[in-house]
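Example 3.
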Amino acid sequence: MRWEPVIGLEVHLQLATVSKIFSGSPTTFGAAPNTQASAVDLAMPGTLPVLNEKAVRFAVMFGLGIGARIGKRSVFDRKNYFYPDLPKGYQISQFEAPIVGQGSFEILLEDGAVRTIGITRAHLEEDAGKSLHEDFHGQTGIDLNRAGTPLLEIVSEPEIRSAAEAVAYLKALHSLVTYLGISDGNMSEGSMRCDVNISLRPAGSDTLGTRAEIKNVNSFRFVEKAIRHEIARQADILDDGGKVVQETRLYDPEKDETRPMRSKEVANDYRYFPEPDLLPVVLDDAYIEAIRSNLPELPADKRRRFTAQYGLSEYDANVLSDSRALADYYEAVAAGCGNAKIAANWVQVELLGQLNRDEQTIGNSPVAAADLAGLIRRILDQSISGKIAKQVFEAMWRGEGTADEVIEARGLRQESDSGALEAIVDQVIAEHAAQVQQYLEAEEAKRRKLVGFFVGQVMKLSGGQANPQMVNELLAKKLV
Amino acid sequence: MLDNFIPPYDATVIQRFKSAGAVLLGKTNLDEFAMGSSTESSFYGPTFNPWNTSLVPGGSSGGSAAAVAGLLAPAATGTDTGGSIRQPAAFCGVTGLKPTYGRVSRMGMVAFASSLDQAGPMAHTAQDCALLLNAMAGYDPLDSTSSPEAVEDYCHRLREPLNGLRIGLPREYFGDGLDAATGECIRVALRELEAQGAELVEVSLPHSTLTIPTYYIIAPAEASTNLSRFDGVRYGYRCEDPVDLHDLYTRTRQQGFGDEVKRRTLVGTYALSAGYYDAYYRKAQQVRRLIKQDFLDCFEKVDILAGPTTPGPAFPLGAKSNDPIAMYLEDVYTLAVNLAGLPGMSVPAGFVDGKPVGLQLIGRHFDEARLLNVAHQFQQSTDWHLRVPESAMGGRQ
């Protein structure tokens, strides 16, 4: 039987607010345990939540970014369960009336195809603290720094059909939320955590199979591997005539497998009810429209503009619009050098290559956009060849100065003085009479190969600074 | 559960009193987590009624009421979720005010039922209550349910005459459950108000019979989750040598909570459970709206409502402590005021066999000044509020 996977993702996105969603404590990552937990975060008796307006604003920005209906009257609810890292014994979340309703956004698949994935809803809630099981000699440590960090839980429709699509969805989501500036999207710090709902059905069927939920998968790569593993596991069960059990599973990256969580942890009745300590959040049109009018250009729009305005391929446009910082960088280079296509090549190949090698982000690039544009201008005005430009770029990367400074300091300006070049060409021809003879006797097709020898010799004599185009022209003229 | 717990911060009400120059003498006894009508469920044992130490002082703010009645303090604060200021005020012969929901910040009050809780003043006179409320009331950015509605000077209107005031007497508050002698005290008190120019009008609160069941769904439901934080993890009582997490939770809460708290936690958890939520909690919220509407309808016709605070005077210690239903019936006239979010007062209005009786006044939302005005005018021509129990005479010299 051929099985079709039906996948829905729930992403918990940490919002990039300065303070927590219901208290004034800071949200900075990596502080010493329990140094960012106030009386409210510790659920001291008598403390009350106060909603952070920035979290609401960020949620509305997300909703508008996916063309969703914004909940004009959203309600916070208590989700009740006991756990040591949940200080109040309930999580303040949204259940019946979320702040963001149905919407959708585009994902770009590896083959260049574009798919639209529906978003069921997105709601605001608070994060729990962390339970630390190591280093406590059989006891559990509790760190409440993270407790109360604002989360936007984004629930997709079950419209994803493969591990690759799931990754494309997450990448597109990551790109969208970082464009909006509502999250740092840092997966290694837990800013974007993913639960995967997955079931199989016979290809072509309309009914849904029994699903399993894989909790807390925290990187693109693990999402892909966990889904592949889970599809294979469920297909094995179904192929053998068995039934998939509806359960919550955990992905173990070390063993590359999913396994069930203990049933005690999942058999919860959360007893949702409206949070009486908070009023419903009522948003008027003016508030929503003010946010809409300040939205930045979003990835899909930027991608389309890059192909139309700069004549880039879909692939290039997609790479260069991946993050707002990269797109801004690229546009600055393109404007600064006046050639969008060469700018696209340099940014993608040299710049991204170096950033990857050094494990740096675009924000930390040692070569500023204006300086890269300056380098490209020297290629365009034929001051240096593309090959020399790479050397110059590496020097710039090491902090040796601007393109002009490096070219000047190292004397890399290419020789375009035709008189000087002609002298070198003549010298090469005079010193290699045998090769000249061979060249003149060769057939046309072979000559092209042989001319490379003379170009190489000229380059050697000129210290790599001869303008290759001019060398070729001179040789063509003289080798007769 | 919170024995020896010292809060790391001050409640907004306490901060306001401190900045107004008040001298705080100490904490008073109350029913455990404010759940009770007699102060007998306190972890520290019962408080006695200064008028007769074989009687309860009422509850849950029984310690506050007894401290004021017994002249240990000129004034006290209480919290009122279903009558916990007004009922002990009535039992101890003092004046107590539960403000409109949202008038006084709840920040720092141990939450019982978040949508019903209000803090208020208890003192001998309405005038003292007005002074106290001036210090307590106002918007608090740390309590999202506190009201931005402007605060007036509650002393300003105390001296207004009652001419033309329309007082509604809810038929349902003078029915079968009311002790005859208590009822007579109330009628005498109402005639006094009439003599001052007020007009008495019979009105009806048709959904009154639903008050107790509605309250005993909503209050325990909210309480059951408000009390989840008392889990032995961060502060408060923790059981000895827990073997695992489940053991820590169950034994901590089993040993740390008293019977009444456990009873309400269980009821509330049940009411919110999957499959029961719609039948209980959601339904109770719908009925709550009807109850509130009853009051709003009355206030179309009258300025305030008046009736007994309690069905009878203080009862002996132990008389109802093993009968939760009988105890719940103590609050039959006070609960609806919390469900509707209205301000309510209890004013000393006489004695039955040496036991104080309280007259309850109920006002429109944010009309505390009117209630205090009526109570103050009543206290200009009566002296019930000035009577002092014999047990406190020593303290007076």
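Chain B has 13 helices and eight strands. Chain B has a mean pLDDT of 96.
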